[in-house]
Amino acid sequence: MLSTLTFSLLTFACTSSPFAKNDIDFTLELKDTLIYTNPVFEPVLADPSVVKVGNEFFAYGTEDNWGDEGGYHLVSVLKSTDLVHWELLGNSLDKKPDWKDRGGIWAPDVTQVGEQFYMYYSFSTWGDPNPGIGLAIADKPEGPFVDQGKVFDSDEIGVANSIDPFFMENDGKKYLIWGSFHGLYLNELTADGKKLIGDKIQLAGNHLEAAYVYEKGGYYYLFGSAGTCCEGVSSTYKVLVGRSEHLSGPYLDQEGNSLMDSDSGTLVIGANKGDIGYAGPGHNAEIITDKAGNDWLLYHGMAKKRPKLANGTNRRVLLLDKIIWSDGWPSIEGKQPSFSSGPSPVLE
């Protein structure tokens, strides 16, 4: 429940908004509802991953130097109870893994496995000829995560640019999905999650990275990001999706095209049109379902009016939007990030 002061502020905001369809009705509809406006966290949380623990959410992002807006962070970790207000806890890793001579720790994927928390991460530099994926484990979601070493690298698996891991359990088995513009692949993991077993299976073509799979209504939905992630306001990043009745595929988009094809994928979200809003929305985190049954997508993007930090780092802020399901297919309203106020997730 919001305070009287908050009610007053919300009433003023809603009744003075040019987006209000009916000032009085709109205010009454929202008076007991928390509203929010993107971004939900700034200055940076690139390539986000989110895990729910009890009534709290923890979010993690790529290693970055926030410069004069917060300094260096080695896989920052945030905490929230409502997906809207996020507290920076610090770094989830005390020290950088040492199984590569150099590189950044990118695109962490955190999942609760039993009583522990597994973080699969990319270890790479731009243009790295042999990046790889490692695993760190913690007893608490905020860490510290202790490195378990390399799971595999690109040379070993035979897939160039093997980064952007996504872990899931299915039918009692552990799997890793990964890849960045050289195909998306699925491989079973050992029972301890530290190594691959069996053969890899290609799920999608060379136009996607940042894989995420979500089960709903008898389908596996494979989300991936296409385009350029990191060119400031010129970034072309967007999220595409396909679905399959089987985890191993084949994955088809809404038009029936195979995700193996370079021009395939149904658009979930892309950049705002015009000079305002966000460029390069993509690399979505796990989908969160609220108590009203609505699904929410967390992802990063860059405000067109402020796309970079003073030190030149892409200012990839954390964005939140509700998913609309239509005929069994997900998208964000308008297929672009929201930048006006709207109702928050229902979590109480």
From TrEMBL:
Pfam family of the protein (one): Glyco_hydro_43
Signal peptide: 1-20
Site residues, Important for catalytic activity, responsible for pKa modulation of the active site Glu and correct orientation of both the proton donor and substrate: 164
Pathway annotation: Glycan metabolism; L-arabinan degradation
Active site: 47, 209
Keywords: Glycosidase, Hydrolase, Signal
GO molecular function: hydrolase activity, hydrolyzing O-glycosyl compounds
Entries under InterPro entries matching the protein: GH43_arabinanases, Glyco_hydro_43, Glyco_hydro_beta-prop_sf
Record-level GO BP terms: carbohydrate metabolic process
Family to which this protein belongs: Belongs to the glycosyl hydrolase 43 family.
Name of the protein in its database record: Arabinan endo-1,5-alpha-L-arabinosidase
UniProt organism field: Algoriphagus aquimarinus
